[in-house]
Amino acid sequence: MKRFLTVTLFAALAVSFVVAQTPAPSTRTQAAKASPGQENSADLERVLNDMDKAAASFRTAQADFVWDQFSKVVNDHDLQKGTVYYRRLSKEVQMAADITDPSKKYVLFSGGKVDVYQPDIEQVTEYNAGKNKAEFESFLVLGFGGSGHDLQKSFDVRFSGNENINGVNAAKLELAPKAARVRNMFSQIILWIDPARGISVQQQFLEPSGDYRLAKYSNIKVNEKLSDSVFKLKTTGKTKIVRPQG
Q: Regarding predicted confidence, which is higher, 1 or 178?
């Protein structure tokens, strides 16, 4: 599982937007001021409720991205740029990423497998999620139509205030994995939610080693029609398919 997610997760989940609605304005009818813990709990509940509402109507999402893989040991940043697409078909979520920089690459998650197509060497590397399909997809929809309260099934979720992200006053959610094997991969996941537009403008996956994956999104479009061709690899007759084992 770890090897599969390590190879494909950043390309696939870079889980990215959180489709939500604008949080309702707070009302204070009591004379006594709520404690910081109570206020944070109320704020978290509003965000999760808004995510639940948006999940019910989520169909598609599209955005330009910058993905940053940071390696602490060598203090190096590996940047990738392109466009990512998501859509829900019945109970399945599909993802396609068109990576344009620094080299051309396509990533497709559909039918329980991830295909990574490298046109420069005419090769598709296929990873089958197998029995881990549901778990992998749960990571995938962290930011694309996933239910807010469903997060609490797999994570301890904390609202940690608001933070300015590129001019957006975003609500910050910190997710701590409950499962030990997930904590071995990611010690914490952070979502920055834009309450005005109902999306996550930034997402970070922190590893125990100090490495991290950071995703930033722009030109976001939600529930607009996407062509079926977006979710098909443009291979040629020369393309070979490789299926790694393990």
A: 178
